[in-house]
Every structure is written in structure tokens, then in C-alpha cells.
Specification:
The protein has 122 residues and is an all-beta fold. It is built from no helices and 11 strands. The strands form 2 sheets. Strands 2, 4, 5, 6, 9, 10 and 11 form a 7-stranded mixed β-sheet that branches. It has a 4-stranded antiparallel β-sheet with strand order 1-3-8-7, with no helix packed on it.
């Protein structure tokens, strides 16, 4: 029954902000590392941010450090990605992932949502 569902994507002007949400179902997800990845058209999926559910440690890609913040609400089994100072280079499908371990490699994550589109206009 494991499932991840993203929401909050949309169209925003450069310099604007969006907050993405990822709701997780299943008994074990509250103890998993969770992460956000993104994939632009014609590009490989790339790591954005990760967070440990219980330890509070975070990891960010250099391209988003200082602009994006990953957070969580364990009572709701939900992880968030607050995105500020958006640029057109942030345009991509953003996907939530969950799994064991820790790191920026997609192979470390076992469960994936379908993704939500973020489009930043100039």
C-alpha cells in the first residue's frame, strides 16, 4: 500500500515562490529518508534535497542551496519543499522519493511519486 503523492506545483514568475507537498501512506514511511528530485525535458533526473524523518538532517544540491528548504510533518506523514527565488532553470517535474539510507543518488530511494510540474516563467 506504499504510495507517495505530490501536490503544489504550478506556474510562477521568476523570483516567486512555491511550496510542494508529498503525502506518504504506509506504516514504515515515517522512518524513511525522504527526498525531492527533479527532471527537466531532455535531462536526467537530478537530486534536489533530502531529509531524515527522525534525525532532522538535511542535504541540498548546490544549485538550490539557500533558496529551497525541505521540511517535514511526521504526524501527517508529509514532507515539504519550500522553493524561493525561483528561476527558469528550476522548471522541471518534481518528484518525491522515500527509502532507506542517505544520499543524493536516486538508487538509494525505493518509492516514488508521479511528480508535479513546476514552471517558472521569465
Amino acid at each position: 500500500q506504499a504510495q507517495l503523492v505530490e501536490s503544489g506545483g504550478g506556474l510562477v514568475q521568476a523570483g516567486g515562490s512555491l511550496r510542494l507537498s508529498c503525502a506518504a501512506s504506509g506504516d514504515t514511511f515515517s522512518r524513511y529518508t525522504m527526498a525531492w528530485f527533479r527532471q527537466a525535458p531532455g535531462k536526467e533526473r537530478m537530486f534536489v534535497a533530502a531529509i531524515t524523518w527522525t534525525g532532522g538532517s538535511t542535504l541540498y544540491a548546490d544549485s538550490v542551496k539557500g533558496r529551497f528548504t525541505i521540511s517535514r510533518d511526521n504526524a501527517k506523514n508529509t514532507v515539504f519543499l519550500q522553493m524561493n527565488s525561483l528561476t527558469p532553470e528550476d522548471t522541471a517535474v518534481y518528484s518525491c522519493a522515500a527509502g532507506t539510507g542517505w544520499g543524493a543518488h536516486s538508487k538509494k530511494y525505493d518509492y516514488w511519486g508521479q511528480g508535479t510540474q513546476v514552471t517558472v516563467s521569465s
